[in-house]
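Weekly sync notes, structure subgroup
Attendees: PM, AL, DS (notes)

Item 1: joint prediction request from the bench team. They want all two components modeled as one assembly rather than separately. Inputs as received:
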Amino acid sequence: MSLSPVPFSKVAITGAFWSERLATIIERTIPSQYERLTEYGILDSLKLPQPVPPLQIPENRHGFSTQIFWDSDVGKWIEAASYALSFRRDAQIEAQIEAIIDDLEQAQTHDGYLNCWYLGRDPDNRWTNLRDNHELYCAGHLLEGAIAYWQVTGRDRLLSVLRRYVEHIAKVFGPGDGQRKGYPGHQELELALIKLWQATGDNAALDLARYFIDQRGAQPHYFDEEAKARGEDPSDFWAKSYEYNQSHLAVRDQTKVVGHAVRAMYMYAAMADLAAIDDDAGLKTACEALWADLTERRMYVTGGFGPSASNEGFTSDWDLPNETAYAETCASCAMVFWAARMLNLDLDGRYGDILELALYNNVLSGLSRDGTQYFYDNTLASDGSHRRWDWHPCPCCTMNVSRLVASVGGYYYGTNADGIAIHMYGGARVSLEVGGAGVTLDETSAYPWDSAIRIAVSPDQPVEFCLSLRIPAWSGQSTVRVNGVPQDVAIDRGYARLSRLWSPGDVVEVQLQMRPKRLWAHPLVAADRGCVALRRGPLVYCAEAVDNDVAPDLVRLPDSGALTAEASDILGGIVMLTADAAAMQTSDWGADLYRTSPPTTQPTTLRLIPYYLRANRSPSAMRVWIET
Amino acid sequence: MSLSPVPFSKVAITGAFWSERLATIIERTIPSQYERLTEYGILDSLKLPQPVPPLQIPENRHGFSTQIFWDSDVGKWIEAASYALSFRRDAQIEAQIEAIIDDLEQAQTHDGYLNCWYLGRDPDNRWTNLRDNHELYCAGHLLEGAIAYWQVTGRDRLLSVLRRYVEHIAKVFGPGDGQRKGYPGHQELELALIKLWQATGDNAALDLARYFIDQRGAQPHYFDEEAKARGEDPSDFWAKSYEYNQSHLAVRDQTKVVGHAVRAMYMYAAMADLAAIDDDAGLKTACEALWADLTERRMYVTGGFGPSASNEGFTSDWDLPNETAYAETCASCAMVFWAARMLNLDLDGRYGDILELALYNNVLSGLSRDGTQYFYDNTLASDGSHRRWDWHPCPCCTMNVSRLVASVGGYYYGTNADGIAIHMYGGARVSLEVGGAGVTLDETSAYPWDSAIRIAVSPDQPVEFCLSLRIPAWSGQSTVRVNGVPQDVAIDRGYARLSRLWSPGDVVEVQLQMRPKRLWAHPLVAADRGCVALRRGPLVYCAEAVDNDVAPDLVRLPDSGALTAEASDILGGIVMLTADAAAMQTSDWGADLYRTSPPTTQPTTLRLIPYYLRANRSPSAMRVWIET
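Output from the run, pasted for the record:
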């Protein structure tokens, strides 16, 4: 029986780890993103009408032309800002959003259409190139922003704009006579439409999401027909294969994660939603096959994936180069969305483990400590030249991190008629209904730095339900106590399930094992052969040169030996890992490039920091995988 | 005191190894190259006049446009074929060369100019783009071909054509008023002019070579001025830096090997020639610095170099990726030319060691066993998809291998007034003059498969001279006997020097140590860290999947343990290496991509073949560097 997620707005984040990230997002990231949206002309691009002739597209002062995905960036910023407003209302931010809504309202045509790039640059050619352009994608992000703003503020002006747009889209696309048989070239609208249905009960929106998912990959191929209608040869498609946008097959027939990674993840998230909503076994089976393919053959140890810059996506099994890892921040954000849906569809800790892995590592890596700089791509090794950006020509990742972190509480809990599942730890309080009673859960811990977790379970009155506690696979032997009494509880697919009559004052204590551990990659992952990575709890570690006497790529970490975790006050306070290692010597090598004896080594201590905190100090070589 | 090389034409190759390669070149390679030159329209491109309008360049049936370097390919084929003729005259080949000479004679203009691409396509713009086009380069290869044909056949018609061309070039370029201050954009002519001087005493040719070398890199930069004269912005040069063609600095100020690798090596060879001819300490010092830079920081273990396809050349120190190694065959051929000149300039075994390394490995890798297929780039690892070509759009490497192998005897010996140096072994007989007496040396060995070398020294009459025998650095302890008596001979910079009165019937026996050895790369070579390569004598080995039960990239070869050399009849008869190794297991790994225990291994025997013989059987994964 599937679970419903508990929305972030009901969850109070109380733990230090996420409170710090949330405060940074609210105080630094959201305002600085607004500055960048202004500075780069993105907000100005919404100020219509006056069509600009297509061949005279102005360059703004940073040299970017106005780009077809800018509406989506605005939508994502509104979404992130709205989530932030739920923690702390802010008149200035609200005024900024209202001004954007003015522009969007003004831009929308009478029939409901609303894409500022087309309206401004090429108004006669709307809906002529779903394959390459981003109208439906932009619609999705604007819709998500509108829903969030309405949910947090109660103001429905933007939502009304977007609902008119959705009505227009539902007229243009669909199975009926005279309707276009198309679907997004960049998936995203599907899951936004499902959110709209969830928030408003708008069945037409759900039907449209279903249509987009079911229609995808049908023959004759829509993108072929559309290209021909433009007078182009479909085989001239730059990406060569419709694997790029996952329309090479009907979605139910897909078993390999292929193509552009972000497109793929948004689509899988919508498929998981529909699998739950419609109890659709075909979609669930496809999701499971795709999940296995991603996590068993195509995912970095940091929860990133999509190694290639050329397609921003997948290549071949086991191809996970470290120095050139693309591992886009957006893709991991989108995978968190998918993982959360899989977890609530079918409570299994492996979804939670990967959700957590991606969130704490590849996702958080995308945002600097100070909340104003970003990584679009997340390499697992660097000579020090891979540095954070103030902004990016395609700023998609910046607001994907902020909207995800600002709503992180939404990934903590799932509920259904039988009980409550706790997916994440780190200090959070929530009040829920279960079995007809109100229950408050107050979880306190220093997670992810410490593994002692205390949950005060406070029902209004004694009530029986199952409390499912995620026991991460990395934890090994864990203990669960209720009111101090050890529980002999079996772990069922990654969850300790405590079914009992819960009474006010009950306390659950979970003690996970958080010893640092070595990880090895599957031998077919050529890039990681002969290397180990270190992990403690949900955090994967990396060695940065700035913490070490020796360049990380000259260090050899033996296959065994003690790993020590110790608190450090660097980087705002972390748990650092140290290990006895050997430093390859270069000073005694001599002039020969090749010689008949191996390098000599000297003992050294290798110090490692959490991967997500890399590149927050002076430029410094970095490695996740250390040679053995 | 420098040595003079003994020309290949005086050296009889008697050993099995080179005799087989020579016979293949003569019987298969030279005729098949003529077929390819015909088939691809290269020989037709010499058939002038009738200028073809520049904008109507015909495509030949293989889709290549006529290319500006085709004259050079014809020149190299004539050179290679001429060397082959010295072993066995062949009326058909001679008729083919004579027909080419007819065309060249016909194409040459009254003023001596002779570049078929310009004459055919763009006759009014000769000498306007030395930077990018290849007029002087083509002249060099045609000149080398002409010298070779004349030396072998005594026929001077082609040499006369080229000497008229050289006279023309010497009028156009030089320090005088009204002369252009240019030099080759692709070096090569310099060393050809020196060959002409060596063969004919033509001082004007030597002066021109000196001018080209001395003028290179002078300010104002010729390629800047030339670009402006074409109405171009010099900074639009596609390669961005004049490092590409080594004109960024005066040659005497150059200390780093940079840019296009073949251009560099041809230039260094000419610099070494001039250093010897002019006793020019500045050029010798520059050559020594460049040699150290190449061999100590920028050379593959196979004697290849220039890792990057984008500039066909050098990148940065220690950057030696294996899977993507460009390591152009031509570059190693050209380095053999340079090494031979360094060796005779300053008898030091390290030049001979690298000459031999490049020749037996990266150079020979460029030609298939059957003599009709080629590698342009020589990777040190492949998944099996890196296969030989029947021909190449730029066929430079094909004839560079054939001309080098067909003249390999020219690299065996050096002489001066004091004596004779033997640089190479493998079965060869030569008759020389030393100290006024005639001396025949008859070296017999099964080198490179076996390390027992016997040299019959047969002077016409007793004569005192120093016989210097190269003792490769890989050999370790070696023994030298004269007439059965062990000699207590010190190794002076890689040579055992035997100064004595030599009498008819004297026999020198050298016993080298040819045990297989592990090689490690300098720790800063990231691509080879944690790996070993195997070498026996001059041959570097590689593991091909076809000889092994396990894919080479799943094999781990321990840092120590026995390596066995044993004769095998595969690939025409080789010494194969075998080693006890461990095969990483994938079948017991399970579904996880990452886990907390290392891969299990099973004992296996790793079998390796000489690198130069790779890719002569079915497609097969291959590695030179094996993980430890």
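Discussion: The two ends of chain B are 45 Å apart (CA to CA).
Action: AL to compare against the crosslinking data before next sync.
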